[in-house]
Amino acid sequence: MEEIPEKSFLATDKLIFGIGQVSKITGVSSRQLRYWEQQKYISAIQTKKGASRQYNMHTLIRIVNIQRFLNRGFTLSAAVEKALKIDEAAPVVKQFMTTQFKGLKKEADNKFLLDFGYLDNSKKQRVWGIIENGETSFEIEDIS
């Protein structure tokens, strides 16, 4: 079993995307992105005047969520409202993952085990998140 104990994949603070990249990633046109910015739904990183707009990972995720809700038939204002609620929860999820995530084990080409550490302070059971063939589940392992 290959062990990948890397936590750095959660450190997304320094990822920066140009407006063209964001448009390609999300399917949202550059024109729409500029409109959303004018409406204060999103904000670009402050750069020199005349420089291309750039967005951080947090804004990229907000754009993805807004577009996802628009694709589900919500109005733009409702989509933004729903995306903002997700934004509120994101720091809590990130804190949990940063604290609890201990590593990743690749068991097979299509099976990965995410190590979430011990279930409690007794350290008698370990919690594993399992991703296999696109399906996810949890497993509790008794520690001898």
UniProtKB/TrEMBL annotation:
The protein, known as: MerR family transcriptional regulator
Residue ranges occupied by any HTH merR-type domain in the UniProt entry: 19-86
One annotated GO biological process: regulation of DNA-templated transcription
Gene3D superfamilies per UniProt: 1.10.1660.10
SMART domains hit by this protein: HTH_MERR
CDD domains: HTH_GlnR-like (cd01105)
MF GO annotations: DNA binding
Domain of life: Bacteria
Record-linked PROSITE patterns: HTH_MERR_2
